[in-house]
Write a structure and sequence with these properties.
Elements: H1 2-12, H2 25-34, E1 41-50, E2 56-65, E3 71-75, E4 85-88, E5 92-97, E6 102-107, H3 115-128, E7 129-139, E8 142-151, E9 159-164, E10 170-176, E11 183-193, E12 212-215, H4 225-232, E13 247-256, E14 259-267, E15 272-279, E16 291-294, E17 300-306, E18 309-315, H5 319-327, H6 331-345, H7 349-357, H8 362-375, H9 379-387, H10 392-398, H11 403-410
Parallel strand pairs: 6-12
Antiparallel strand pairs: 1-2, 1-11, 2-3, 3-4, 4-5, 5-6, 7-8, 8-9, 9-10, 10-11, 13-14, 14-15, 15-18, 16-17, 17-18
Helix pairs in contact: 2-3, 6-7, 6-8, 8-10, 8-11
Amino acid sequence: MLCVALAAHFFVLCAPASAQSDPSIESILHKSMAAQDRINLRGIQTEIIPRHDSGFDTITRRIVRRSDGRSLAICVDTDGRNGTVYQDDGKWTRNFDPFTRVCSITRSVSRIADGRSAERVVRRILSNYRVRLIGTEMFSGRSCYILALDPKDPFSHPLDVRIDVATGATISRTEYQRRGGSTISLNFFTSISFPRQIADSELASKFPPGTRKIQTSLSLPFRSVEPLRRKVGFEICLPNSMPAGFQFESCEIVRLNDTPTACLRFSDGLAAINIFESRTAEGFTLTPGIIAKTLPRGEAIAMCQVGRTSCAVMGPRLMEGVVMIAKALDTDSARNKMESLSRTFGVPIASVIDLRNQGLGLDHIAALLEIRAQTGRTMKTLMVMHQDGWGWDLIAQRLRVDVHRISDKIRPYQSR
């Protein structure tokens, strides 16, 4: 509650202001997406994270970000994290811990490359969240739109964001527990500016002698599961179905606890769920069931074993939500249901497997096959729409297919 009180005190200092004419939510989201690669930014950002003991952790960062994707964030005046550095050159992110003198190197998060990519993300957000424009107010000296985003998935967290009217930059973000409304994390700029130019020297950071570098990204990202399966040499377990709105984004090999690990990434446009999988060591005693726990910042993790594959599902969800995904990692059930799809829709099992390797859940495959049967559209056409951010329900609406009828058809293939 102290975290909320601090936030409220900060907001009191920011006088509300009303906009003369409110733009559309879609246009605000588009401006926010465009801000990722169109603006230079310099500022001080504070993050407040409540703890289970009713206290809170505070992290303050000095941030510089340039429109070409390069950025530097250094922790200052922070509870036990002073000197931590996050440096991104647009291709690689270096995370330096001054206490262990370890620099972890990971692949940079992919940026929104063009207008079509922005359209895709905005479409998915509007499909998967109930978005409201609350109004405008002054925050950190900037006029901001206030958006409230309530995920349709009951296990995901609602959030509020303040988006700078002039630039589209996110000035603050607050995430809440759905049950009870308590704050999970609060992230805001206390000062911010948008300079015309940022010199290379502002984005440079030298790590001290003796720094140990650990490369955690061990492969290029794959858009299909099959090349990942060939690289790692063990069975990759895909969820039979994901929470509504979450789609497969990519997969890669990462180093986790010094072990090469397959990482599968799913997203609903804002939130991301990662599934980490590794080969269980020979002679290791298999643990039955699912072990789950909550993590800081509203995340949760669920761990299980499927055959000789160890799996961990992690993301910003209630613990029940990650357990549900872990239960869907059932390869025996998946084989039976894929054979059922092949028989029901009269398609070769190889075609079902190909769609599966593209990360689609069995329910999503069933929906697309039913839409194909009712409209005569090719799967190639439907998959292009899917890759452009259209969920099966939006594709059905666009092609004038009865969504309720499809819902009945796909129910046997859902795991939620």
